[in-house]
Target: Protein kinase domain-containing protein
Amino acid sequence: MSTSNRIDTEIKNKKISVFNYDEFSNMTKAGEGAFGIVYKADWKTGGIPVALKKCSNFSTKELNTLIKVSFHSNINRFLGITKESSNKYVLVLQYANQGNLREYLKQNQNFKSLQWKDKIQMALDITCGLKFLHSRNIIHRDLHAKNILVHNRTLMIADFGLSKQLTAESSSSSTVYGMPAYIDPQCFKRIKYKRNKKSDIYSLGVLLWEITSGYSPFLTIPHCIVVCKIANGFREEPTINTPLKNMSKSREIFFHLINNPMIIQHYEVMIGNFYSKGFGVEKNKNQAFEWYMKASKAHNLYGYYQVGYCYYYGYGVEENNEYAFKFLQSAIDCNIGLHYLAACYKFGYGIEANSSKSFELYKQSAEEGFVPSQYEVATCCRSGTGTKENKTEALKWYKLYQESGGEYNVSSHIKELSKEITLPMKKRKITSTFTARKREETGKKDLN
Model:
């Protein structure tokens, strides 16, 4: 079956609106991309301007994606389809009256008028649209500032030529198309890399940087060099346009999005983070807690963790160890939740203290890469808390903690353990006996 016939079948089965080509007039070129040319046109019947996308390689794939997602307010709306005189199909789409995000930010007056609350809203617009795509198991794969449209200051995701429906059998690996600055670094490192939702979230992080700075990423660097830099971990820095109080926070959230793709599934956590960090809005612990609670009610694991954390420390809510334990237990699949759940067992917060259970959870979290848990495992192995004393294991975990950039300076621990382990057995026993006697004498002095 030809592409044309397949599209005819899709139109019939899905009851897509079909318009006569002569319903559109006053066509002017509005933009051009890798997958087609877009024209602005007046729609006589509808009485509104629309965008006509003439696709160079039209397929049912993009059509199906548009049908599934176009009713969301942060997705460019699909109105129907038409055929031009050459018998080629043309998509009829919502017209964005302020162009794409790149053009919008380039207009100096537009960017100057944006307050931080406006930038946050723009970030949330894209986040909500992407959240919706991912909830339908669709990855966009080509998110960048020219594929984000602005209509009455609301942002919409557009251009689904490269998008893909994720299934257990599907492979999203392919030739790397798009704008290099927005592409997941793994695509440049591994030829057969299977792109996923995290790839879109990397692009979202770059878009957030562009919104906060007003500049295109890597503006003065040739594309071929950009690819090498991104593959080697190079990232844009906050610019002078970013207020000092927001510089580190914009960077922090950029990397937070990249490293924690789960939060996109429920944007409530992201808003909670904005309030918690004071990013673009006034810092407000109570508001942060309320948004985290909304995320937990939507059964978001990261939301469970944040609520548990708030109850644990009394952050934006009255401290409550029982509630902390309850929410952290729900967040057990979240690596960071394991760490604080282990702390509950360690100190007996909300449950009877259990050093063995605490060690088990710390170790599970540490093995999954959570750095603070690595320190706890090392300490337990050294002291024999919740597990058998094992100085070799303790040394291993202290070294790993140090290599991972842990907060505490553990050089002295590593030095001491290295000496203890390398001491001859006999000397080690003498040292151990001497240390025990010294501790005993010190204890007696303290009692006196």
Observations:
- Confidence is low (pLDDT under 50) at residues 165-176, 239-248, 442-448.
